[in-house]
What we know:
A: 7-stranded mixed beta sheet; 4-stranded antiparallel beta sheet; 11 strands; B: mainly beta
Amino acid sequence: DAGITQSPRYKITETGRQVTLMCHQTWSHSYMFWYRQDLGHGLRLIYYSAAADITDKGEVPDGYVVSRSKTENFPLTLESATRSQTSVYFCASIKGLAGVYNEQFFGPGTRLTVL
Amino acid sequence: TQLLEQSPQFLSIQEGENLTVYCNSSSVFSSLQWYRQEPGEGPVLLVTVVTGGEVKKLKRLTFQFGDARKDSSLHITAAQTGDTGLYLCAGKQATGRRALTFGSGTRLQVQP
């Protein structure tokens, strides 16, 4: 049972380039999320998706684009990478439609460096 | 401004000591969770508290949700080196969204 995977695990790119981070989950969870983690900020929500073809902005969506054509995949694209997008990116999903319990399962993260 | 403030940000203690980590907010949450994150990995859920005043124990870890559901604490008794990691609190506001709001985290180092 692979659970939730992210690729690549590490990426170095240059300012202005387009970068896509992949997220795949094997549980058929309805909800999926993208967070970025920076020192002193904890985890900040970029985008989330309630189901295939349904996405919504989170706290810090500027400069990012998401899509969800299939339930199991939720790619995050940086259309024109900037140095401020250097961060560790985490994908997460929710098992089932629990009310307040909302246990999120996280992927291992992608460390992105923008030069 | 962080919606959920955690303190302290960093904590370095000796094995066997006790410690408490705090998570505070001016907002009310329908539930609050504590996650632990190890280097190079994603956060893993430790506990969820739902009711104001609720106390949950997980071996040497004790979690408490404030009466007004605006704050929470994590107390570790007789810390072990295996407790080292980043502890994150996360709250779900009563908005119906599935997204959580995370605190900035407390980095704990337990020295042998």
